[in-house]
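Exercise 3.2. Students should predict the tertiary structure of the chain below and write it as structure tokens, then compare their answer with the key that follows.

Predict this chain's 3D structure.
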Amino acid sequence: MRMRIGAALPLLAGLALGLGATTAARAAEVSTAAPPAVDGAAVFEARCKSCHEPPTGRAPSRADLSRRSRADIYTALTKGIMAPMAEGLSADEIRAVSHWLGAPEAEAPGAGKTDLLKRPALPTVPVAGEPRCPAAGHIQPGPGDWSEQGSDPRARRFQPVPGLTAATVPRLKLKWSFAMSGGGQPVVVGDWLFVTNRNGRFYALDARSGCVRWSLDDVVSRTTPMIVRSPFSPSGWATFVGTSGRRIRALDAETGHEIWRSDPVETHPIAVLTGSPIVSGERLFVPVSSLEEVSSINPAYSCCTFSGSLAALDLKTGHRLWQTRVIPEPNHPLRRNAAGTQMYGPAGAAIWSAPMADPTRGLVYVATGDSYTDAETRGSDAVIALDMKTGAIRWSRQVTAGDNFVMGCSGARIGANCPSPVGPDYDFGATPILFRLPSGKDMLLAGQKSGAVYGLDPDTGAVRWTTAVGAGSALGGVEWGMSADRHRLYVPISDIGLLYQEMMPGTSDASLKPDRRASRPGLYALDPADGRILWSTPAPKAPCSYARPARGGLAPPCMRAQSAAPSSTPDLVFSGTMDGWLRAYDVRNGQILWSDSTTARTYDTLNGIKGQPGGAIDGLGPTLAHGAVYVMSGFDGAARVGGNGMNVLLAYTVDGR
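Answer key:
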């Protein structure tokens, strides 16, 4: 797999893993200091070109990197995902290549008023250009809230009281927009909207107007907040987010003030928190993923030692109650690679997505990523049920064995740490859904990047049915999530690897290797009882206009891959595509009832950005609450298609009122 949300993200696309005040100041110095004496072009030629020009695997191209600010690149090389790749470079060399490769702050997307590297890390501090709400008020929950990533405890992404119908959805119009650098999926409780950003800015907005109730500058997060009633929070409401440093932070939802901050959930140096933590009872369940799949490009890196895990924290204190690694076999030395570096295994099985709790059975379910080595393991590409009290694995169902994958194992340049054979990268990136059938029995539904969807017995893990929906590829198949209402399961299909092949048949990327299968991007409705496909709507070939990269160059190709998680109501399904279109479908037959191109115009945002472009809808599904639809446009997901550095949060309502 790749970084998750989230994540999986571009290698150097603003992944600041720990922007404290000192790090932020050092990053800001990259653009303010005089040009370094070291030749940045020479550093790129010697250490970076082999992966980025032309791009290898899912590494961004040099043109993609040139759109990022120098500070973003510096942070990624010193504290972020590319730090392992920068081992051996001097501070001057890192500064030089950042200065040569990146854009000056004034030219980078979202520069100026939204330069987040220089903001103080305090709550309720006004920021120039941001509209402040006149009074915060109190959280008043009600029907139509969307208080967690999956909307309900069964992770269905279903809104039973949407305030929208098939009759009114054609009248949806944009009400407001808000520029977000590295924005996530929002949640809504009453008229409060909460959204995190990878650059550290955590907002509580007024859901109706978009004004800022409070904000924090030091919450670097890729997880969706979860808002719950809490007796230990001064206001009675708390939110929990996974942050840099692999910690969970509990905050008062009405003020942003910290309640507690956990110890690091995981000690592995390249582990990250990407799947959203969830609350069930008095416990917080935290999935753990890693960037080791990327670090393995470096032949000097001892690949691989990470295992995905699930941790349970005490909701009141943040203290760890248990942590279970999902690879049951012990990690041990394997062999030395061509560079003489010791290799280890088995490893991998990152948990990229949020878990799903089932208090009735006392279980919590997770879906795992691929294996990083060719040492056999039963924990990768699996759906696993753990005991909520003890963390003991009750059952584990691996659906694809031998899916051994790290980056840098394609084309003419085969990395030293590559497993043999290299797997198809068909792991899970979507949270399982627990569905109640008309018979009263439950079915656990899981979608894989292979394009397969599974119906499993939640008591035993036995596979009751399997349906091949998409053709599958390294970036989906089923990529980020599915949705279910009371009758149907809605499955978006990306198949972007095959779409790339259709557009660029000469590519040599292993994930895009010649394949006779036809891509099948679109939205599908399945019967959860037996997996029958009830209807399908192919992703339309529609107009799209991404913003051009900074300093000229061609815009990336528009892709109709349907990668983002969908969201449903009793009569509608909302689903976005990488070409920036958001559409509403009739649940009965898949007819498109409304659509809007988020790239067809630019936005003068509430926080003072003029001409902000839209972009891809990738990873982050729409949030449906109180008659409004909220979606993030321009998010640069794993496929690196249509991202623009500065995302824009869009709020749609009927007639824009």
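Discussion points: Residues 2-28, 105-126, 507-513 have pLDDT under 50 and may be disordered. Residues 169-654 form a domain with the Methanol Dehydrogenase; Chain A fold (CATH 2.140.10.10).
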